[in-house]
Queue: 3 jobs
Job 1
Amino acid sequence: MNNPATVIAAGGVVWRERRGVRQVLLVHRPRYDDWSLPKGKLNPNEHVLLGARREIEEETGQDVVIGPPLGVQRYTVRKNGGTADKLVHYWSATPVDSSDFHPNDEVDEVAWLPLEKARTKLSYPRDVDILDSLGRVVPVAATLILLRHAQAVKRKDWDGKDIVRPLSSTGIAQAERLTGVLAALGVNKLISSDAERCVASVAPYAASIDRHINQWPEISERGYESDPSAVRGLAQRAWKPGKVTVVCSHRPVLPALAREFGLRVGKFSPGAFLVAHRLEDGRLVYERFGAP
């Protein structure tokens, strides 16, 4: 009997450079007696980027920053006496901190290995395919997250000036959840329209890392309407080498910002965002996400 529910999981290829040699981190699972990439099922309502970071830390003891996507695996697993499709999302991941690894029922051993040794150690060809994707998306020169502000109080329900129109209760919750997502991406530079609904969308994260929000009036709705040409030249200020920058703006302004930043984007719902990685060879790798 087939179970139609798809199992969603996430993980990553954790890597580092040691004396000019790229190493990756594999895990051994005693239940299956296999060597694989760290991954696991998402918790209910968990954002996939948060799930990837959490599973990596739980299985390896490594606190990581999530980088470019490496691909998706699809295969069938046993579930509730039947079978189900499993979908596993993988990203490049770099360690920012590590704790002591403690063997457990799920993972009893971890190993840092050079790429070629890791390829032969992995138990599944599908994991080798994901591992081989790593070299195509690293190293990263700069990362930019283009964000539409979280849900705001509707214009018709607000009597004050539009620039101070606040987030709705739903938007406040989105901004709080966004904090974990921006942390998983390692955001260390914050840029926002000076409108309250934009600043409030990134304020919880800014407070969590004690970082200043750079407010740009020219990317507010009012600023853009008064001078659409003011967005020109902002790309050099947003794409900063070695930085992971979030830029929060408004639906009418995002298409112009995307063009200025060299990105292709469609419509953004409130709280939705695009993550773009500029590689050292100049290529762009990016993906879109709905609001967390």
Job 2
Amino acid sequence: MPAPEAVLGPRIVVGGEILDGHAVLHSDGRIQGVVPVADIPDDARRRDLGPGLLAPGFVDVHTHGAGGRAFNEGDPEGHRAALQAYLAAGVTTLLPTLSSAPLDELLGALVAYESIRDRATGPRIPGVHLEGPYFSQAQRGAQNPHALRRPDDGSIDQLLEHADAIRMISFAPELPGAVELTERLVGLGIVAAAGHSDARDTDLAACQRAGLSHVIHIVSGQSTTIRTGPYRQPGLLEATLASDDLTVEMIGDGKHLPATLMKLALRCLQGRLCLVSDSTPGAGMPEGYHYQLGQKEFIVEGGVGVTMDRTSFAGSTTLISRMVPIVAEMTGIGVADAVAMATEIPARAARLTDVGAIAPGYHADLVLLDDQLSVRAVALGGVWQ
């Protein structure tokens, strides 16, 4: 093994703490450890980054595109262009996310992903997140209503012909066949997630018993409590907030959720609540920019994506690295905890075991932040970009 490199200068986010006077040792693309500067081995090369905060590379498990390109396009060159935009923003691992679309579009996008997954030069892409098409019409949000399906209609067989390319599928737990779909996904090692759902708490519980472990974007696209006569029936939102072991996403762009709802989610789910960008091709694009997802057109307006009739958000235009300071400011959460929401917790949600932390054996994926938590530099496998 070659002599290690010691990265020193900034404070370092390690295991929920921020360490001063330490260095990260890495060699051959992997982290060896974190040691006091006085204990750096004599044979180590030193890289002094100066002041700042050194964090794990960001992990985004729900993101549709950036820089004018969408993963739904099914265009390998478009994928590569988007991936470079993520890497520049400090995102070193992501799940390219496909929104609900006709089956042939989804299959084409999966094939396009398979063509680049081993040759991509940007962030690590351990698999695709299929956001749909098995969603509730009542909670579809900006999802294409004409592309929505039921889990028991047979279409999953075609999608799962590409099971090795899929890391996560989100669906509505109340739909016919949802429990059977959960069991099938768990058996294949695919993360089963709930979302865009009109479920009652009993529907979610049935899928949890079958192995569902994750819930997408809290509050957005989630049913809430209804009354049947004098009896109250909790919805997906309340069941999620009351859960003991689910990992849960939150879009932290300051647009989708006000501070009160962010604080409520953190109070109930801290340690299991992760940030996701839910970004679109509108990320990094100017006001008034039009983009498409799943054959629907949207517009960047007011710093967020919206439907053309302005009745619903249509994903964010903010990448996850910019959400960390937004959430820290709006909720008062500590910096180390905010960083964990964009690194360690989403990695755990997607069952990724060697990214999202600065720890021995993990990939040496690092991001240098300034005092405002803006990205200054990014390393992928120990190579500074």
Job 3
Amino acid sequence: MECVAYATGRCRSCTLLDIPHARQVADKELALRDLLAPHTADAGAGIAWEAPLVSVSSHFRSKAKMVVAGTVDAPTVGILDADGRGIDLRDCPLYEAPVAAALPVLARFITHASLVPYDVARRSGELKHILVSGSPSGEVMVRFVMRSTEAHARLLKHLPWLREQLPHLAVASLNVLPEHKAVLEGEREIVLTERETLPMPLGDVTLHMRPQSFFQTNTAIARELYKQVAAWVDETAPRTVWDLYCGVGGFALHCVAPGRLVTGVEVAEQAIASARITAAEMVAAGVPGAEGARFEVGDATAWAQRHAAADLVIVNPPRRGIGVTLAQWLENSSVQRVIYSSCNPQTLARDLDGMPSLKPTRGRLLDMFPHTEHYEAVVLLERQA
């Protein structure tokens, strides 16, 4: 991938950019195999490895999380340097076309709507971040993360201009983050458009993303991840499946089948609302087995402890992993198979320490984050006698 910002030293976020992409993937797979080898029955020989799912090397990110700085007349949209000054990255080659096309328009919108960029050093101003998500259909969701609701009326007033300049805008919202702290967004969300969800068509399943819903960064690789997990599930034909940390229901809704009960559990209410929309659409469309999908709001660990175990459990936790309590519950349960999708294999390995009876038998690396040290891994764990 060629990047002017990297070549000129303006941005060095892609820490592996000097390493050929194929070498990056090979190194990550070797690291993953070494990491999981101690957790198999015979030093790694027990894992059947699928070929890595390799991403394209540029224009793969469906989400942009941009810091806003500078002034109303000359805003920067990108990151901050060590002194808190804005570095503009509208030309970043990581983003898919719909997201990339939105960034220069949004920079102009800052000036057009008189949105005052937040000054970290002075703790003054309003607009902190702009978060953009793109759909495979070409539509985008834009979220303005602001210090207060001061610009609410102004955003609504100038929204027609933004829609004219950005015809593929589907959802826009104002997120309120009054605190001065290093987080991307606040708890309060005010939707500015009639539509509240961004449809994400992924083959036979169209997921719905709300402003505060989690969705994978690399949609093309996410689509293949869902297909991989669904294939492993179908091979063993479990009668009951749990999808813990289900988000908007990606794994659960790809695993529906006649006679199968699939339950998704997620602590975020907005994500569960999105999952239920997709489930209802699938039932209406006559998708076989869709009526067996249900979704519940709750903490994954606490919810599991209150219910009789499923035949197969899918977990897709945040970077911290599933934790000691859930790992021990799975170890002591009657669950025969666990599919663990991990964005942090270090915590995956730690969690495997708490589940010594559940051994990884199949695995795959997913090149979700090219040019960085991060990657996604998915493993099938099977209970050993």
